[in-house]
Write a structure and sequence with these properties.
Radius of gyration: 20 Å
Mean pLDDT: 83
Structural class: mainly alpha
Number of helices: 8
Number of domains: 1
Shape: globular
Order of helices and strands: HEEHHEEEHHHHH
Strand order of the largest sheet: 3-5-4
Low-confidence stretches: 4-27
């Protein structure tokens, strides 16, 4: 290899590193929204229910997101008891209400989903709106290395009719996630 030109040496080293134990591995970057869609398709129609992530390591991210939503997007975020869900968003009044019994990690997970509702296009039906918001939540949580793909897949498993939103509104979902993750 000493006599190979630099370009050939790099290609050869790359090929050698790809062949491990007779198996060739190709590194490709798969769109995270496609990954989410595939994970949802693999789940049987059963919504297992939301299980909040324990802990507080996302406390400051939750505080920052509240700040972004309040001061940049004009939203009001309140915490208190909820009977039927962990979060509710009123897009007309720009109000988000989060269940206060959740851990800070759980609050951040739910807040990212509810923030997705504030940033969604107005022409979506209820199923499509849930898919849009969950797509935004998945990208934001993934950005913060809090990737719980199975959680999102189980939540969306009963909403498969709206999965086309992950492709048709991919640019809008990415833009919304970017707004929520800007430092």
């Amino acid at each position: 290899m000493k006599y190979l030109p630099w370009i050939h040496r790099g290609i050869l080293l790359t090929l050698i590193s790809l062949v491990i134990g007779g198996v060739v591995y190709f590194h490709t970057t798969v769109d995270p929204l496609i990954t989410l869609e595939r994970a949802v398709q693999a789940v049987v129609y059963v919504e297992t229910g939301y299980r909040s992530a324990p802990g507080v390591h996302l406390y400051w991210q939750a505080q920052r997101l509240e700040h972004v939503l309040s001061f940049v997007n004009g939203a009001t975020i309140t915490y208190g008891p909820l009977a039927d869900s962990y979060g509710v968003t009123n897009t007309q009044t720009r109000q988000i209400h989060i269940d206060d019994t959740l851990s800070w990690n759980g609050r951040f997970e739910v807040l990212t989903h509810e923030a997705g509702h504030l940033l969604q296009p107005g022409r979506l039906n209820s199923v499509e709106a849930e898919v849009f918001a969950e797509g935004v939540s998945y990208l934001v949580l993934r950005h913060y290395k809090h990737d719980r793909l199975e959680l999102h897949a189980h939540y969306l498993s009963s909403r498969k009719a709206g999965l086309h939103v992950l492709r048709e509104f991919a640019t809008d979902i990415r833009y919304a996630a970017q707004i929520l993750t800007v430092r």
